[in-house]
Amino acid sequence: MKYLNTEEFAHQTDTRDPLGAYRDKFYFPEHTDGKEAIYLCGNSLGLQPKSAKLYIEAVLDDWRHLGVKGHFEGDNPFATYHEALGEQMARIVGGRKKEVVAMNSLTVNLHLMMVSFYRPEKERYKILIEKNAFPSDQYAVKSQLEFHDYDPKDALIELEPRSGEDTLRTEDILELIRNRGAEIALIMIGGLNYYTGQAYDMQKITQVGHEMGCMVGFDLAHGAGNLDLSLHDWDVDFAVWCTYKYMNSGPGGISGCFVNERHHKRKDLDRFAGWWGHEKATRFLMDENFVPIQGAEGWQMSNETVLSMAALKASLEIFEEVGMTALIEKSRILTGYLEFLIEELRSDRIQIITPKQADARGAQLSIRVINSDKSLFRAISHKGVIADWREPDVIRIAPAPLYNNFSDVFRFVQILREELGI
Ligand SMILES: *Cc1c(COP(=O)(O)O)cnc(C)c1O
């Protein structure tokens, strides 16, 4: 698409946008002046679907009218409430129906997956992660290493960009895996780095990881609902994600988890069991021996947080309607427009560190503010932009294709221009 740096172009593009009507299905927060804020923070907390309240109220109604019978009666019985969510998320991440489950929260699921898939042996006990991984992932892998009596200083290998570069080169990632793969028990990388916005080549990493005998898992907190994913076809071992970022399920919303079907029937895997992972037909016989469901659901522990799942259900219905293909098509054009407008500023005070190639990023650009304190970020926030700041010097801007439009992006860059004094 040929972009123009005019408000008219942004407006025209919005009127032709096939997903334009979806904006109205979400609530936008207000700025202090009472006007709609320019919300570009869906990578941190997605906006509330207007339908979320109805779905939550439906659960409250069933509980009110049916009490415990709500587990098996009503339009959406509590005991099976998660099943449709798993199916819908499977379409979003490219998994088979039995490979995806909605349960718990993200870091909890990451730990549960490492219980099963981090299986250190004498010579092969290390974990590979990216150096600037999200802190919770760092804490999780380090604490797993320590739990197995390894010292993270020795047992954690961190991928670092070349000096003077901000993002990792695929060739460097693969070379490290080829060189040191025999030491690595688990490769666990954030599929899209929260800080730089870089999306990694998960297919190649999985392929080379497997050639070297490693387990391969991804944290898709920033990837699910944002990137074009084919977890099953790529043969990824496991993946975990939260749904409150691009999937709009509300603060602390339920997490998603993918377990490759290759592992479903394995009896040699450790897992932390709970009654909700027990085979459904015999779950309520309350037998003392655990018989896991043969599927990702076999990793469930507790009965479901249905009220929280209701908000996710509201959002996933919208994803079903739109489909990932249309969503990603718009996302690439929209993020491309943001990049175009920022480059048009020709400012040497800011620099985009997110990769330029469309398949190496999602709906986020990370803007480094050269020699900055937080003042530029504060100034744009004061003018009604909701984005976020990541220490030491990055503003993250995420135009979410489900509800953001070209005019949002245009207005944001206007404000950025004013505050840069251009
Ligand atoms: C958002 C995010 C988390 C947050 O974890 P919770 O358990 O949901 O609090 C963890 N890891 C990554 C990579 C994230 O982006």
DSSP strand content: 5-15%
- Oligomeric status of the shown chains? single chain
CATH topology category name of the largest domain: Aspartate Aminotransferase, domain 2
Number of domain modules: 2
Query: What is the count of helical runs?
Result: 13
Cα radius of gyration in angstroms? 22 Å
Distance N terminus to C terminus? 26 Å
Structural class: alpha/beta
CATH superfamily of the largest domain: Type I PLP-dependent aspartate aminotransferase-like (Major domain)
Bound molecules: pyridoxal-5'-phosphate
Uncertain runs are none
Basic shape: globular
Spatial strand arrangement across the major sheet: 4-10-9-8-7-5-6
> Total strand count, please?
15
- Give the name of the CATH architecture of the largest domain: 3-Layer(aba) Sandwich
Question: Secondary-structure blueprint of this entry?
Answer:
Elements: H1 7-16, E1 26-27, E2 38-39, E3 48-49, H2 52-66, H3 81-93, E4 100-103, H4 106-117, E5 126-130, H5 135-147, H6 152-155, E6 156-159, H7 170-180, E7 184-190, H8 202-211, E8 215-219, H9 231-234, E9 238-242, E10 255-259, H10 306-322, H11 324-345, E11 350-352, E12 365-369, H12 375-382, E13 385-386, E14 388-390, E15 394-397, H13 406-420
The chain binds pyridoxal-5'-phosphate (PLP).
